[in-house]
Amino acid sequence: MHEYSVVTALLEQCDHYALESSAREIERVVVGIGEHSGIESALLQSAFETFKEESIYAKHAHLEIQIQPIMLACSSCGTSSTPEEQSYATCPKCASKSVRITQGRDMLLLRLEMLE
């Protein structure tokens, strides 16, 4: 389960930001998980609850998960869109095959709420 290593890295990053900010404690960690990131939100939540006890600043933190939809950008017409179907091969506006995924494959730390 790679969620364990993801949470370990996330908590290290959170502790680093808290230390840099001279925070006393982290109250909330908000992450965005892409629909195609390969990360299961329930497993991430479970791993967070388990590993936060080892954190310096996030022992009592709440994890908020926001699912980030797939976003496509078309090189032909410049359209950005969220596909309706699981097919990402063509632009929904101009049917060009010159599209790339710009969102929805990553996990991002969106916000930390800390007490000073």
UniProtKB/TrEMBL annotation:
UniProt keyword Metal-binding, yes or no: yes
Gene Ontology biological-process entries: protein maturation
Binding site for Zn(2+): C74, C77, C91, C94
Pfam families to which the protein is assigned, alphabetical: HypA
MF-aspect GO terms: nickel cation binding; zinc ion binding
InterPro entries: Hydgase_Ni_incorp_HypA/HybF_CS, HypA/HybF
Presence of keyword Iron: no
Keywords, ordered alphabetically: Metal-binding, Nickel, Zinc
Positions with a binding annotation for Ni(2+): H2
PANTHER family per the UniProt record, alphabetical: HYDROGENASE MATURATION FACTOR HYPA
Family per similarity comment: Belongs to the HypA/HybF family.
NCBIfam families for this protein: hypA, PRK00564.1
Function of the protein: Involved in the maturation of [NiFe] hydrogenases. Required for nickel insertion into the metal center of the hydrogenase.
Full protein name: Hydrogenase maturation factor HypA
Native source organism of the sequence: Helicobacter canis NCTC 12740
